[in-house]
C-alpha cells in the first residue's frame, strides 16, 4: 500500500488531527479555490484539516520538487481539475504523494518558519470553492438495485424491476450545463404535471421536489472514440469521487419520462461537492463487489474480472441531512434522514465505466459519472424522499414537529460521506449543500 | 425582409450562380475551416458557391468595416462558432449582412483585383471543415408525431403514442463527446442485445445499425440558470441549423432503453454537417406551425403564441441518400431512400426551446438541439430504416439488386437538406456524410 495511507502519518497542520476532521493527511482531496472576496485566479488546492494547501504557492516556494518541471505543475494553475485529470492516474498519484511529503510532520515546511506555512495555506473559512471540474458530459447511472426496485414499485407497480436491470448497468445522459457547486441555491422548477385523475396537465412549480443521494466519479485520462475498455483497465480512467445531489421533480418526471427517460425533471440543477477524493485515498476502503442474491444472473463476461469482483467496490458511507427554515429559526441542528453504503451498489465503478465505453463512446477528462441514488436494503438507507416517504404517503417526521413528504422552500439538503475501516484513518468527502428557494 | 435575401442579388463569385449550388449569396452559412493539409488555425468562414469566404482574411484586407472594431471580429478568429454564437442574433445578423455586401456583384472586391479575391476565398475542394461548434450539451427531441407513432408501434404495439406526447415536447439528453464532423467514419458499435426468444442477452456488434435524419438547432446567446424563456423570445436564442445524423443501434436500444431512455444505442456517434444556416437565411421558408388534427389538444399556454403559430415552422426538405460498397464498385450513384419536410414536425423550434428552459435549465452558446427523426405522413418520408423497413420486415431495394433491412459495413449515409419557396432563391444545407466501418 501507498505510504501516503500509513495510519501513523502525522501532519504539521494541527487541525488535520482534529477527531472530527474529514481531511487528515491520509485523504488529501483536490479542489479549486481562491481567497473569498478576492479577484485571485481560481487554482488547484488540497484540503488538509481546516486548511487548503495552495499548490501554486507550494511550487513558487520551491516545494513539490518532484513535479515542478512536469505537466502536473501547469495543471495546478488551472481553474479546474481537468488538466490534472487529463494527465492520468500516475501524475495525480505522484502529485498527491508530493503533497503528502510537504504536509508531513518533520517534512519540508517545519524546516522553515511559520510565515512560510502561512504563505502556502489558506483557511477553508476564508476560501471560495469552485466546481472541481468543467464537466463535458454528465452520465447518471441507476446502480442501486434497492433504489431501482423501490422506485420501480411506485412508477410501475406491476413490474418494479425491468428484465434488463440485472444485465445492463442502466444509465442515461444528464445535463452538464446545470451542474452547480455546493452552496448554490436551487430554485424550485416549474414543469408540466398531470395527476392520474386530472383530465389534462398543468404547468407550474413542482409539488414533489426531491433530492437524490449519489456518489460521482470524475474521469481522469480520457478514451478515444471507438476504444472499448477492458474491465481491468477501467479504474485507470477514474480520477476520484465527489458527492452528487441529482435534484428531481417527481411529478414532472412521472409525466414526462416515457419513452425517452428523465429530462426536465432533472436538468434544472445538479449539485456537486467541492473536494474530489482520489481513488488512491479510497484504497483502504475497497470491498468485494456486491454479492448478487442466489438466482441473479452473472454479469456478461466483459463486465467481470477476478480483481474487480474481489475489490472493485468501495465502502463509502453516505448520509442525507435536512434542515428546514423552521428548524433553523428554532435553533435546531440539521437532522440525518438516511444513511447507506456505496458498497451496496449492484455494479462496481469499473463495471459502469466498462459498460459506458463498450459501444466505443469516448470519455473526456472531467466527465462525471454519477452512481444513481445510493439506497441500501434497509428503510433507513433510502437515498431520496420518493423512496423514504413512499411518494409522500408516509411523510417524514422532523425535529420540531414538522413533517415532509417532499421538499419545501427553505429546506436545505446536506449530503455527507465518509469512509471507515479497520487499520485505516477515517476520511470524509466534505459536504454537498443546497437550499431550496421558491 | 432583410435585403440579404433579395432574390435579385448577384455575387461576383461565379459559382454562386451555378443552378446546383446550395450556397447562393442569399444563404451565407457559417462554418469553421482551414486549408486542407495545412497547419493553419481553424477559423470562421462563410460558404459561397464552391468557395469559402475567409472572414479573418476579409478583416485583414480592410473589408467588413462595420464589424471590424466589434466583438464579431474576434469571433471570426476562433476555432469554433461558439464565440460568434454567444454574441446573440444581432451580431451574427450584422456580420452576415457585411458578408453579403463583400460578396455582392458591384460590391467591394470588384473595386480591387483578382488577386485580392483569391486572398479572401478558399475553394471548398481545398478546405478541411471542422465541427462548427464545441457542443456543451446535446439535446435530442422527438418532435415528429409520425416518427413517434411509427417507432412506438414497433416498440410498444399496444400503445404506440404515449399519453404525454401531444402535451410534452419529448426530449432527452444525448452524448456531446461523440459528436463528429461529416465524413468521419462510423464504427459499428458493440452492445448488449437480447431477442425476445433468447434466454439471456449477448454482447457483440449491433445487427440493427440505423441512421436518423434530423435537423439540429445551435443555441446562440445563452440563458442563465433559472431563466424561463417566453415563447416569443425563444428564437432570439437560436443561431442556425445543420443536418444531424443520430446513428442508432436498434437492437441495443430496445434492450436498454427502459426505464431511463436511450444511452449506448446512440452515444457511439452523432454526425453533424459543417455549415450552419442562420435563421436569417431561413426567413423566406417560414410556415405556419403544424396543423394539429381535429381532436388533438391545444398546447399549454406557455407553448403558444400567435406569432409562433403563424410562422414558427420552417419548410426545409430533408433527404437521406444511401451508397453501398457494391454500388460504388458498380459505378452506381447514391440513391435517395427518403425525403420529408421539417414543416411536418409536431412542435416548432421555438416551442422546443421554450419547453427546454421552462424548468430553468440554462442553455449555453453552441448547445445543439436536434429535432428527432424527421418523418412525415407518407411512407416515402420515413427518416430512419427502423420505420422505412418496419424493423427489417420489409427490406429496402437498392440499385444493383441489393436489399437493406439495416446498415451494412461499407454503407455510406448522406443527409441533404434544402429550402424552396415562391419568390425566394433556393438554398441548401450541404451534406452530412458517414461511412459505416466494421
TrEMBL record, chains A, B:
Annotated residues that bind substrate are located at 142, 156, 253, 257, 373
Q: Which amino acid positions bind Ca(2+), per UniProt?
A: 140, 212, 214, 246
Q: For the Fumarylacetoacetase-like C-terminal domain, which residue ranges apply?
A: 139-434
Enumerate the residues binding Mg(2+).
Answer: 246, 266, 270
- Give the residue ranges for region: Disordered: 181-205
The pathway to which it is assigned is: Amino-acid degradation; L-phenylalanine degradation; acetoacetate and fumarate from L-phenylalanine: step 6/6
Q: Where is the active site?
A: 147 (proton acceptor)
- Swiss-Prot/TrEMBL keywords: Calcium, Hydrolase, Magnesium, Metal-binding, Phenylalanine catabolism, Tyrosine catabolism
From the UniProt record, give one GO term of the biological process aspect. homogentisate catabolic process
Q: Report the GO molecular function annotations.
A: fumarylacetoacetase activity; metal ion binding
What cofactor does this one take? Answer: Ca(2+); Mg(2+)
Q: Which InterPro entries match?
A: Fumarylacetoacetase, Fumarylacetoacetase-like_C, Fumarylacetoacetase_C_sf, Fumarylacetoacetase_N, Fumarylacetoacetase_N_sf
Q: Fumarylacetoacetase N-terminal domain spans which residues?
A: 26-132
Q: What is its EC number?
A: 3.7.1.2
Q: Name one Pfam family in it.
A: FAA_hydrolase_N
Q: What is this protein called?
A: fumarylacetoacetase
Q: Which organism is it from?
A: Gemmatirosa kalamazoonensis
Tell me the lineage of the source organism: Bacteria, Pseudomonadati, Gemmatimonadota, Gemmatimonadia, Gemmatimonadales
Amino acid at each position: 500500500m501507498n505510504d501516503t495511507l500509513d495510519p501513523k502519518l502525522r501532519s504539521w497542520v494541527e487541525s488535520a488531527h482534529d477527531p472530527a476532521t474529514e481531511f487528515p493527511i491520509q485523504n488529501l482531496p483536490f479542489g479549486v479555490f481562491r481567497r473569498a472576496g478576492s479577484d485571485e485566479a481560481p487554482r488547484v488546492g488540497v484540503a488538509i484539516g481546516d486548511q487548503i494547501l495552495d499548490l501554486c504557492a507550494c511550487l513558487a516556494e520551491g516545494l513539490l520538487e518532484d513535479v515542478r518541471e512536469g505537466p502536473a505543475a501547469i495543471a495546478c494553475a488551472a481553474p479546474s481539475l481537468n488538466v490534472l485529470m487529463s494527465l492520468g492516474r500516475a501524475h495525480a498519484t505522484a502529485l498527491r504523494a508530493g503533497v503528502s511529503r510537504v504536509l508531513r510532520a518533520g517534512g519540508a515546511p517545519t524546516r522553515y518558519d511559520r510565515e512560510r506555512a502561512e504563505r502556502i495555506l489558506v483557511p477553508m473559512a476564508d476560501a471560495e470553492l469552485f466546481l472541481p471540474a468543467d464537466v463535458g458530459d454528465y452520465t447518471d447511472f441507476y446502480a442501486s438495485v434497492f433504489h431501482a426496485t423501490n422506485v420501480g414499485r411506485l412508477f410501475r407497480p406491476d413490474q418494479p424491476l425491468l428484465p434488463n436491470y440485472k444485465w445492463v448497468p442502466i444509465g442515461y445522459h444528464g445535463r452538464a450545463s446545470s451542474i452547480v457547486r455546493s452552496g448554490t441555491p436551487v430554485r424550485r422548477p416549474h414543469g408540466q404535471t398531470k395527476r392520474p385523475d386530472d383530465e389534462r396537465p398543468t404547468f407550474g412549480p413542482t409539488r414533489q421536489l426531491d433530492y437524490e443521494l449519489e456518489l460521482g466519479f470524475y474521469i481522469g485520462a480520457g478514451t478515444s472514440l471507438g476504444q472499448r475498455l477492458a474491465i481491468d483497465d477501467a479504474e485507470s480512467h477514474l480520477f476520484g469521487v465527489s458527492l452528487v445531489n441529482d435534484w428531481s421533480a417527481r411529478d414532472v418526471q412521472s409525466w414526462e419520462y416515457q419513452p425517452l427517460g428523465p429530462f426536465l425533471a432533472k436538468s434544472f440543477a445538479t449539485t456537486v461537492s467541492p473536494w474530489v477524493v482520489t481513488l488512491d485515498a479510497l484504497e483502504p476502503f475497497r470491498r468485494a463487489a456486491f454479492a448478487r442474491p442466489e438466482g441473479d444472473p452473472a454479469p456478461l463476461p466483459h463486465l467481470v474480472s477476478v480483481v474487480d469482483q474481489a475489490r472493485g467496490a468501495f465502502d463509502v458511507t453516505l448520509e442525507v441531512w435536512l434542515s428546514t427554515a423552521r428548524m433553523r429559526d428554532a435553533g435546531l441542528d440539521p437532522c440525518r434522514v438516511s444513511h447507506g453504503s456505496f458498497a451496496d451498489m449492484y455494479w462496481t465503478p469499473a463495471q459502469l465505466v466498462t459498460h459506458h465505453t463498450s459501444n466505443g463512446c469516448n470519455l473526456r477528462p472531467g466527465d462525471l459519472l454519477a452512481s444513481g441514488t445510493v439506497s441500501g436494503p434497509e428503510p433507513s438507507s433510502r437515498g431520496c424522499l420518493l423512496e423514504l416517504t413512499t411518494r409522500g404517503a408516509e411523510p417524514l417526521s422532523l425535529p420540531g414537529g414538522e413533517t415532509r413528504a417532499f421538499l419545501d422552500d427553505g429546506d436545505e439538503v446536506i449530503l455527507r460521506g465518509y469512509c471507515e475501516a479497520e487499520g485505516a484513518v477515517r476520511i470524509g468527502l466534505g459536504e454537498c449543500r443546497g437550499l431550496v428557494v421558491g
